[in-house]
Each structure stands twice: as structure tokens, then as C-alpha cells.
UniProtKB/TrEMBL annotation:
InterPro entries: NUDIX_hydrolase-like_dom_sf, NUDIX_hydrolase_dom, WH-like_DNA-bd_sf, WH_DNA-bd_sf, WHD_NrtR. It comes from Flavobacterium ginsenosidimutans. Residues 21-160 form the Nudix hydrolase domain. CDD domains: NUDIX_NadM_like. This is NUDIX domain-containing protein. PANTHER family: ADP-RIBOSE PYROPHOSPHATASE, SLR1690 PROTEIN. Pfam families: NUDIX, WHD_NrtR.
Length: 248
């Protein structure tokens, strides 16, 4: 069965199962090999890439739908998820289905609720479903062409991530349990999109008193093994309530 015929069949079920005109798009970030990544998929019969998304069942709440969609795509639901914006411009998705009849579900005008998710790289199992031909992590510094308005959704998610860096547990949810100070700095640089002075960054982070220095170091490198740290979660959450003071 070709993909167009498949979508036409699925469309009839979608009209019965989901709330019309409402969708969810998720921007899933992860940190791997000192670089920030975003999860993208390629829909069958399309060359451009898109964000993982889906629709809200008539029997579920919006946040429940977001968790379900995230689990379907990553194989896990234990991921930090935050609703950040609503997208509703005219013709934001219709053009992608220009060759289909006007009554097909996927060609309707959808208001999309945007969520960003923070996933530890090692905990994610990428899932290709019947709608997609590829699901991959992409470096945020080397992104492909996006479908529909998904580039705008991604840009807004990254901007929100930057704005919330000082009052949301972003580092805790993107880094492994044990990490080095250079890895933490690389994470902040990846989110902020700029280089940070090492000495200033270290002093500021240590002044917040949110880290625990562990009695072990990262082995295997050619240079002196860097010390390992972990977040003191109680102090971290307390500091985030007031906001980490000062810009980066």
C-alpha cells in the first residue's frame, strides 16, 4: 500500500479518535558528546524534517497526550516536559498535504500546543512508526530543512530554554548523574549559543552551592582526569525557586 492511500485510511480513524483542529508538537533536546541535539523525524514521502508530534484523543487530557506522544517516540515517559507556546497561524500545515482531498484529517487547520522535553541521551530509544521513514538526533548547529512551520516551533523552544535556564532544572535533566565541570559549561554554551569564560563560569556555578564534588574523576583521557560532580537536588531546587542570579 502506498503512503497516500495509508493516510487516507488512517484519516477516517483519526476523525473518530481525536479532537479536531488540535495537535501537539514536541521539541526534544538532549546533550551528547558535549553538544546539544534535537530529535527530528522524516515523514514518509517527504524530504524535509519535522518535530515529533501527534493529536489529542477525545478521552485524554492535553498533558496526558503529550506524555503518550513522547513515550511513543522515545520509548520512555520519564522525561522532563514543559508546555511553552501555542501555534495557530493560518495554513501552517495544509500546504504539506496539497495533493490530498480537502476533507482528509491531516490537511485541516490545526492549533498546535508546543512542548519542549529534556531527555538524557542514553535513556532514549528512537522509535520509527508507520508514518515515518527516519528518526534521528541532529546537532542544533547543523539542522536540516524543516517541514511546515516546525523551524519556528524549534526556534521558540530554544529561546524559551535560554530564558528558563536560571529557574528550571534544565542541567539536571540533560546531564547524566555524574558529570565534569567542562561538560556542564559545554551544556550552557550549547543552550546559550555562545562561548563562556571558564574561570567566570566555574566561580559563578560554585557560588550557587548547587553541586556536590565527588571523590572520583573521569578516567580515560590523555590529560589530567577531571573531577566529577553531581547536583545537590535539594539545594538546586531551592535555588531555582529564587532564580540563579546574574546573566551568563
Amino acid at each position: 500500500m502506498d503512503f497516500k492511500k495509508f493516510l487516507e485510511i488512517e484519516s477516517k480513524e483519526a476523525w473518530k479518535k481525536y479532537i479536531p483542529t488540535l495537535s501537539i508538537d514536541s521539541v526534544i533536546f538532549s546533550f551528547h558528546q558535549n553538544s546539544l541535539h534535537v530529535l527530528l523525524l522524516k515523514m514518509k514521502d517527504m524530504e524535509s524534517w519535522g518535530l515529533p508530534g501527534g493529536y489529542v484523543k477525545k478521552t485524554e487530557n492535553v498533558d496526558e497526550a503529550a506524555v503518550r506522544i513522547l513515550k511513543d517516540r522515545t520509548g520512555t515517559e520519564n522525561i522532563y516536559l514543559h508546555q511553552f507556546h501555542t501555534f495557530g497561524n493560518r495554513n501552517r500545515s495544509e500546504d504539506a498535504f496539497a495533493d490530498y482531498d480537502d476533507d482528509i484529517w491531516y490537511k485541516q487547520r490545526f492549533i498546535s500546543i508546543g512542548y519542549y522535553a529534556l531527555a538524557e541521551y542514553s535513556q532514549v530509544n528512537l522509535v520509527i512508526d508507520e508514518f515515518s521513514s527516519a528518526v534521528e538526533w541532529h546537532l542544533i548547529d547543523n539542522l536540516p530543512e524543516f517541514m511546515m512551520d516546525h523551524r519556528s516551533i524549534y526556534d521558540k523552544a530554544l529561546l524559551t530554554l535560554r530564558e528558563q535556564l536560571n529557574n528550571h532544572p534544565i542541567g539536571y535533566n540533560l546531564l547524566p548523574e555524574k558529570f565534569t565541570m567542562p561538560e556542564l559549561q559545554k551544556l550552557y554554551e550549547g543552550i546559550l549559543g555562545k562561548k563562556l569564560n571558564r574561570g567566570n563560569f566555574y566561580r559563578k556555578i560554585l557560588r550557587y552551592d548547587i553541586l556536590t564534588k565527588l571523590d572520583e574523576s573521569r578516567r580515560g583521557g590523555a590529560h589530567k582526569a577531571p573531577d566529577l560532580y553531581s547536583f545537590d537536588l535539594e539545594k538546586y531546587n531551592s535555588a531555582l525557586k529564587e532564580g540563579l542570579k546574574g546573566g551568563w
